[in-house]
Amino acid sequence: FKALIFIHAARPEVYSSVKASGSSEQQILVCLATGFYPKQLQMEIRRHQTPVPDEQLTSHGLRPNADGSFQLMKSLQILPSERSHYQCVVKHQTLTEPLIISWGNDDDDKGSK
């Protein structure tokens, strides 16, 4: 059997990215938290500070990493012009306050259309 590698809690590393959607009109916002332990973690995608309901999000579920830590990824399809309204918010027992990452707009998007 495998011994549990983590004895102490580990902070999540949080990454945000933007992917192309199948539709040229839309983009997919992705939020990934990885390397955390224990596995209890809350992740929200917020629009104008309001959580987007889970049924509107795509989640790949909580997954184990090879080192005994965990990862969680959620994504949402949006219009590119609305990207700056969204944030990824992560809460974990190792964080003294929620970790908030904004997607913002690319410089390329300013003033277009």
From TrEMBL:
Record keywords: Glycoprotein, Immunoglobulin domain
Superkingdom as given in the UniProt entry: Eukaryota
Domain Ig-like: 12-102
This protein's GO CC annotations: external side of plasma membrane; extracellular space
BP-aspect Gene Ontology terms: immune response
Keyword hit for Metal-binding: no
SMART domains noted in UniProt: IGc1
Alphabetical list of InterPro entries matching this protein: Ig-like_dom, Ig-like_dom_sf, Ig-like_fold, Ig/MHC_CS, Ig_C1-set, MHC_class-I_related
SUPFAM superfamilies per UniProt: Immunoglobulin
Protein name: Ig-like domain-containing protein
Taxonomic source organism: Cyprinus carpio (Common carp)
